[in-house]
Amino acid sequence: MSVEKRKAESDMDFTARACASTYAMLAGIWALLLTLWVHSAQRHTAGAWNGVAATGSTLAFVLLWIGCFRISIRQNTLSYRSLFGGTKRLDWDEIERSEIKVNATKAFGPVCQLALWPEPITQKKPIVINMKVFSTADLNRVLDFLGPKLKTKRRFSLTSAD
Fold first, then answer.
1. Reported pTM
2. What contacts 24+ positions apart, CB below 8 Å, involve 130-137?
3. Residue segments in the chain with a per-residue pLDDT below the cut of 50
């Protein structure tokens, strides 16, 4: 891809946040549990208010955690932010390659991930993006930005990276 075309494509600012289905699935589970605890507490069940507090705190944490996920593309720079990983940035020219991976063998980290490998000369660490929390449309825009640096097929699902 020519430098002019890459420049024209990346002039557009783009920010992806966690999609609504992520909020619905993860926060919905805790909200349902919180509703059950509140109902139990209103019926004067012993210790139920402790359950309300614990579940409400967990729901608040889950909402904070989901809200921190962000992918931004600004002027040929991709940045990824998560609650535990902080913000990491790579310029397009610093990316050696990228690949979509399904990694179910590690105890921690995303199962469906987009790994960005920097050029060795930059001495930067790879960026691993949790793909599950973003919409397919947003991920496709990120993959468009990566262009020829993406070394795996663009198709992905929860069970494989076909």
1. 0.80
2. 130/69, 130/82, 131/100, 131/156, 132/22, 132/158, 133/18, 133/19, 133/22, 133/66, 133/69, 134/16, 134/17, 134/18, 134/19, 134/22, 134/69, 134/71, 135/16, 135/19, 135/21
3. 1-5, 7-8, 10, 159-162
